[in-house]
Amino acid sequence: MGGLHMRMGMSLGMRVEQSVEQKLEQRIEKRLRLRQRAFALRMELVQALRGERYVPKGDCPRCNKKMTPVEIIQGFNRDPNDFTTRCSNRRCRHRFAPILVWHANAVRAEAPFYCAAQTLAQLPRKETLSPERFAREQQAVYRSAIVHYGGIGQAFRKIGIAYAFKEVADPKRKIKPFLGKLPDTVIAECADVSVYAIRKMRKQLRIARYTAPKNLN
Ligand SMILES: [Zn+2]
Description:
Blueprint: H1 2-50, E1 52-59, E2 66-67, H2 69-75, E3 85-86, E4 95-96, E5 99-104, E6 107-112, H3 116-121, H4 131-137, H5 139-149, H6 152-158, H7 171-175, H8 184-191, H9 195-204
Antiparallel strand pairs: 1-2, 1-5, 3-4, 5-6
Helix pairs in contact: 1-8, 4-5, 8-9
The structure holds zinc ion (ZN).
Zinc ion is lined by residues 60, 62-63, 65, 87, 89, 92, 94.
């Protein structure tokens, strides 16, 4: 009898532990899904602004896991000299260099994908390059800056350097469908427009500001 009770107790304990772990895992997965949705929407905004579609790609060469863009970004070390991300498969964790694919005018191109820290670290002394030259000579930096900051000018601003070239024409018309669906700050950054201007426009159109989904449990 005692043995049976003990076994029952153990299996109950294990079940409780498992469900706590499962809950935590579900929470992490849900947060990841929300981040992925936000990232996808941000890339749609970039596409509306620039007419270019960006897709970070990371297929693990060891286990073939196809990582999502958010997993790729989360796997970076934020080290300017380490260009690898970490495989999100818990049994693998292999480090490898991801790529960035973009489509513009029915043309597909790709370059290494840099994390935000690597992108910023490579900017100094390049502020005199026009966007066209920058795109040609510093492909990976230029394209990665678009993914992380909406453009090279915004990336320069992050490190306190003024960039004299404007890239996106008529941003206000293009951002309209995104008002209220992304934070004003994100739209402002991608469109290279002040947060004040975005807020004013949103209020004039009577669109409620974006609120992050709360029910993570
Ligand atoms: Zn892997």
